[in-house]
Every structure is written in structure tokens, then in C-alpha cells.
């Protein structure tokens, strides 16, 4: 069975391992990224560069296109 394409916020959480790990990496309230999923499924524009930088520093493969359009886990 093929993997399902995830929305940007879901993909970020999956790549970092959990909502809390993503929140810690972004130095924000640990559960804040979970609200992104509930609202629109998108990463807020003001947070996109921070997510990319956090992924790069953690060695997590993540592209700018995935931040905007989502992708596969």
C-alpha cells in the first residue's frame, strides 16, 4: 500500500517525530504545531523558515517545497 501524501504541518510533525519535538525545535509552546494541523494543515508563513532551519540543524531531510505543499513521510 502506498503512503498517503501528508499536508505540510502533518509532514513536519512526522519528520520531527512528534508535535512536542517539533515545538521544542522551534522554541515555541510544545503543542503549538498541533494547532496548525487542526486549523488548516499548513505551516504558518511566519514559521516556515524556522521549520526549514530547525530541520537542517537536526539533519532532517525537508525541502522548501514540502513546507508549502506537503509530501510523503
Verbal overview:
The chain has 73 residues and is mainly alpha-helical. It has one domain (8-69): 434 Repressor (Amino-terminal Domain), CATH 1.10.260. The protein is built from 5 helices and no strands. It has helices at 8-16, 19-25, 32-39, 45-58, 64-69. The longest helix has 14 residues, at 45-58. It is globular, with a radius of gyration of 11 Å. The model has no long low-confidence stretch (mean pLDDT 93).
How would you describe this structure in keywords?
mainly alpha, 5 helices, 73 residues, 434 Repressor (Amino-terminal Domain)
Summed up:
With 73 residues, the chain is an all-alpha fold. It is built from 5 helices and no strands.
Strand elements, count = 0
Distance between the termini: 14 Å
Sheet of most strands = none
How big is the Rg? 11 Å
Query: Helix count, per DSSP?
Result: 5
Structural class: mainly alpha
Low-confidence stretches: none
Shape: globular
Q: Enter the CATH topology name.
A: 434 Repressor (Amino-terminal Domain)
What are the secondary-structure elements, in order, as H or E?
HHHHH
How many distinct folded domains? 1
CATH class: Mainly Alpha
Write the layout of secondary structure elements.
Elements: H1 8-16, H2 19-25, H3 32-39, H4 45-58, H5 64-69
